[in-house]
Design a protein that fits this description.
It is a single chain. This protein has helices at residues 53-69, 105-119, 139-148, 165-185; strands at residues 12-15, 40-47, 79-88, 93-101, 155-158. 34% of the residues lie in helices and 19% in strands. Strand 3 (79-88) and strand 4 (93-101) form a beta hairpin. The chain contains four helices and five strands; from the N terminus they run ββαββααβα. The radius of gyration is 19 Å and the shape is globular. By secondary structure, the chain is of the alpha+beta class.
């Protein structure tokens, strides 16, 4: 069982209505999206400003270096996974940001904005069409951008459903400790 009481040992899938939620509940900035077997997450899809592909790819290297220097730099986001994808289906370059995390959508956005402001790492979203230029002082406009560019999934699956990133890491630490103990016994 996970700390929230769901059973992690049996894979689970959840089909989600087109709106992205089962019953409308107002959050701080918009509808509350449900926790699914994959936990919370989003897919942000937005057009790239002309000439900004190199800046976006370079920002990937900035994040890699920041995590190498301080492996806990993204810890406030409670991430499981993060994926950035650039693609062009014939009408210009598009950016997709997919994330799976342990907090609700609004908390993740607040934490991400706080992280960018506290670390001095500029967000790659400045390279996207419609992202507010005053994002550093206009949190509401930045969050509205994310919400208006979020495309809710309609199916989510978890091989180990509802397990938090901390629970997964704890299980892996226990596995390592047990393996080391068995190695010592030989």
């Amino acid at each position: 069982m996970t700390t929230s009481g769901e059973n992690w040992s049996k894979p689970a899938a959840m089909a989600i209505p087109a709106e992205g939620y089962f019953e409308y509940e107002q959050g701080r900035y918009g509808p509350v999206y449900p926790r699914t077997p994959a936990n919370f997450g989003f897919s942000i899809i937005a057009k790239v400003k002309p000439g900004c592909e190199a800046a976006i790819r370079g920002h990937g290297q900035i994040i890699e270096a920041a995590v190498r220097q301080d492996p806990s730099v993204l810890a406030p986001l409670r991430l499981h996974y993060l994926r950035w994808v650039l693609f062009d289906i014939g009408d210009g370059l598009t950016f997709q940001y997919q994330g799976i995390f342990d907090t609700d959508f609004d908390k993740y956005l607040e934490d991400a904005l706080d992280l960018f402001l506290s670390t001095g790492i500029t967000t790659t979203f400045v390279n996207l069409v419609g992202f507010p230029e005053d994002w550093q002082t206009n949190r509401t406009a930045a969050i509205e951008f994310f919400r208006s560019h979020h495309f809710p999934s309609f199916l989510e699956y978890g091989e180990y459903p509802y397990a938090t990133a901390d629970e997964v890491k704890k299980a892996l630490r226990l596995k390592d400790a047990f393996s080391n103990m068995l190695d010592e016994m030989q």
